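Page 37, continued from 36.
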């Protein structure tokens, strides 16, 4: 087990030397050591743009998180509701009730509310 531990230590030391030397070479050559997702026309990365817009302050970050949660949830619901309705077309209540009961009995139709304007005139006395 000691030979195995020594081999792991030697491998780790070699790996750390290689990484340190490559980082040193990149700094000397003037290269940026961090990766960027995408460069815009001004040379700024999209990462920097997202950071400056959404993550620079707690208020902006919290608003972005809450807004993403709300609108993401709405989008998720609408996508999966439409997929569910497309997959179960003809089996849903909205589809079946009109086919099986085209003429509902009296008293079960949806009632329209009538406005009672007579009560408003009595308050003037």
């Amino acid at each position: 087990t000691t030979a195995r531990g020594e081999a792991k230590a030697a491998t780790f030391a070699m790996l750390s030397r290689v990484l340190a030397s490559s980082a040193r070479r990149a700094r000397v050559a003037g290269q940026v050591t961090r990766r960027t997702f995408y460069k815009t026309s001004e040379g700024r990365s999209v990462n920097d743009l997202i950071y400056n817009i959404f993550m620079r302050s707690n208020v902006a970050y919290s608003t972005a998180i809450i807004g993403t949660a709300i609108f993401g949830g709405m989008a998720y619901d609408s996508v999966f509701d439409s997929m569910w309705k497309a997959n179960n077309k003809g089996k849903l209540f909205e589809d079946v009730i009109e086919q099986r009961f085209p003429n509902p009995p009296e008293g079960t139709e949806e009632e329209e509310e009538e406005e009672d304007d007579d009560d408003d005139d009595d308050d003037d006395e």
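The chain has a mean pLDDT of 77. Flag for discussion at group meeting. The helical segments are 2-29, 46-55, 58-87, 93-100, 118-122.
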